[in-house]
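Internal tracking record. Fields below are filled automatically when a chain is submitted to the structure queue. Please do not edit lines marked as system-generated. If the sequence contains nonstandard residues, flag them in the REMARKS field before resubmitting.
Queue: standard
Priority: normal
Entity type: single polypeptide chain
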Amino acid sequence: MLRNATQRLASLAGQTPARAMSSFVKEGDKLVYTISDFKFHMVEPFDNVVETTREDLLPLYTQMAEMRRMEMAADNMYKAQKIRGFCHLYDGQEAIEVGLEAALTKQDYLVTSYRDHCQQLGRGDTAKSVLAELTGRITGCSKGKGGSMHMYKKDANFYGGNGIVGAQIPIGTGLGFAAKYLHNSGLLRDGKSAETCITMFGDGASNQGQLFEAVNMARLWQLPVIYILENNQFGMGTSKKRSSSNSEFYLRYEMPGIKVDGMDVLAVRKAVAFAKQFTTEGNGPILLEMDTYRYHGHSMSDPGLTYRTRDDVANVRKLRDPIDKLKKMLVEGELATVDEIKAIDKAIRKEIDEARVFAESSPIPEDSELYTDIELPNPTLIRGTEINNGVGKINW
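SYSTEM-GENERATED OUTPUT FOLLOWS
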């Protein structure tokens, strides 16, 4: 009895408050969609209405469904002991990655935490590459040497994949510095930039000192950084209400902030599009708090039911699931038929099944790979560990 009561109290502490309902009106071959609500802090509000079409929505649905299916495959592979070590899944939060990519280009920088499989996919990689990396194969995106938490895609400006809570925040701030510095051939406080940097972290990192230090530097130098706080209600097994004196995160950091329904891909896209324009025009950083929910536990070692109930998870799935929400809009808005959606889902199942076979049959890295990707070949400028043992500059 005591344990059940404790679970319920912890669950209630972490529950997402009820949100206003989104709605749409059909006008010819398009939908006029009213997003549920945004909340603004230190920034002028923008409207919450978007126009969308079949050609717009179907790719968003397909990308989210692909991510969901890939993460479910990873779950099964982990339970079959094909994947070892840490593994943090993203199912439930797909609208954030798909929505932000729809508002960016691959010239914009992106850095995130250890929950990074779908970011790798969203930056243009394949499910084969991701699942191969998870199984430690040479065909993986990091040659099987990074695993779940260390995926990268240099040609798409994706900088990981970082295994330490909050460690990516100073890195993302530095990438914003680079974007502004390189664009202006030096740092102008009110200077513009061509790119922005998406720096993603969870509510579990929201109280870290390095976050406040990085934000201070970004504000001081007006850096083009979009801090995306993925508020999935729990830092590991601790609800935001039990860990933060103020869990309205978009209000907290002395910078412009917007609270966004992170389970609505169109809301995410609109907010990130605004944030990109805001940051690249020299206005400094902005924080987007994405109100979302993870269906799995913190990682595969966490069943996710000691601090919340099955009913809590089921209710979020029923009322707020981002994929179901978009499917409903497509079908009820007469932009796609049920059969068309089923065909997309079938094709995705086939793709992920093939990716799993590819991953499990790919070779593991040779022992010699232990010594590769450590040093830059033929370096021209490296700071030394002591005076005079560097390369390319006297006394480095």
